[in-house]
Specification:
Order of helices and strands: HHHHEHEEHEHHEEEHHHHH
Distance between the termini: 58 Å
Number of helices: 13
Strand order of the largest sheet: 1-4-2-3
Number of domains: 2
Structural class: alpha+beta
Shape: globular
Radius of gyration: 23 Å
Number of strands: 7
Largest sheet: 4 strands, antiparallel
């Protein structure tokens, strides 16, 4: 079933690349999206227990450079994967694929160029795909001295089917992988990490404030009106860092809650589940002890929800986990560059 659907995506993608008819292209793109949605639905419906949900969240940590769609595909084909990469990556590291191994299929996005064409009105232009230009328009676009038709953006067109392998399918030693992917963060290192997260949070337009007491009894909260994250004083280093990450997740993923407290009250479990799951993924990535997190929270919440709700939440969890990890790594890299310069 999976192979047939991936083969169909390949065929539709080929047709999409071939046609220059905009309406036909859009119809083919919709057909591809429909198959991808069905694949994601199959992945989500395969969650049979809390441990399945935990394993999926752990995979986000391991493969945070892969899209949500590909996270689902990797899960469906090899839920116990530990380190996934293309053949060339393993070859560069000096490892080989074991004989008779079947690769994991993923979606590789392809894009087409959108150009902007100046109109007679000052400052006005229209946009259209590069492939739809006439011969005369294409000459103008390729002429560097002519700015009447210029590059505007790239648009996702379709997907090619790519193949990756898990480390268990190669000659790569698995104990080295486990040690690299799952470091353990000690409490005394948490303070330094917290400082880096605070810098990242400030970059995203929020401030961080510490309070002796929070009336609600919570360890922290995100105030969208004041663009402020409030954290309870007196927590251990690790707990305080986890709270900061949890509230950072709220500040990015739930901006729409500004002036809409009723939405939060109505869907509180959904938003807290998303923030908790994002915090779990980021904490796992950093090597924090995640034993206090409750993966059953996501599983319990999702049991009586339809595919669209779960799909939206999982997409948010994957995307905002990646965003927070990227933001954190940028701060770390910048600090490292400054220290080297000094």
């Amino acid at each position: 079933m999976l192979e047939e659907q991936l083969k169909k995506i390949n065929e539709l993608s080929f047709q999409t690349n071939k046609t220059k008819d905009v309406q036909e292209k859009e119809k083919l793109e919709d057909d591809i999206k429909s198959i991808i949605n069905d694949l994601k639905k199959q992945a989500i419906e395969s969650f049979k227990s809390e441990s399945d949900v935990k394993k999926f969240l752990d995979n986000i940590v391991k493969f945070n450079n892969y899209s949500y769609n590909n996270q689902c595909l990797i899960w469906m084909q090899k839920p116990d994967a530990s380190y996934v990469a293309p053949l060339r990556t393993f070859n560069k590291m000096g490892y080989r694929i074991n004989s008779n191994e079947k690769g994991i299929k993923i979606l590789v996005p392809t894009f087409y160029t959108i150009v902007k064409i100046k109109t007679d009105e000052e400052g006005k232009y229209i946009v259209k795909p590069l492939f739809s230009l006439t011969d005369e328009e294409r000459k103008k676009y390729e002429n560097k001295d002519d700015d009447s038709i210029t590059y505007h953006s790239q648009k996702l067109s379709n997907f090619k089917i790519g193949t990756v392998f898990d480390a268990s399918q190669t000659t790569m030693p698995l104990d080295a992988i486990e040690e690299k992917l799952n470091p353990v963060l000690e409490d005394d290192r948490a303070s330094g990490m917290e400082d880096n997260f605070i810098k990242a949070i400030y970059r995203n337009g929020f401030k961080v404030r510490y309070e002796e007491k929070i009336e609600s009894g919570a360890k922290g909260y995100c105030d969208f009106e004041k663009n402020e994250i409030v954290v309870l004083k007196g927590l251990s280093n690790l707990m305080r860092l986890k709270v900061v990450i949890h509230e950072y997740a709220h500040s990015l993923a739930h901006k729409h809650l500004l002036n809409n407290n009723m939405d939060y009250q109505t869907n509180r479990n959904k938003y807290e589940t998303e923030a908790e799951s994002i915090a779990y993924v980021v904490s796992k990535y950093l090597g924090l002890d995640t034993s206090s997190y409750s993966q059953m929270y996501l599983y319990s919440w999702s049991k009586d929800k339809d595919f669209k709700e779960i799909d939206d939440s999982l997409s948010s969890i994957v995307n905002y986990s990646k965003m927070i990890i990227d933001n954190y790594e940028k701060i770390v890299s910048k600090d490292l560059e400054q220290n080297i310069a000094i």
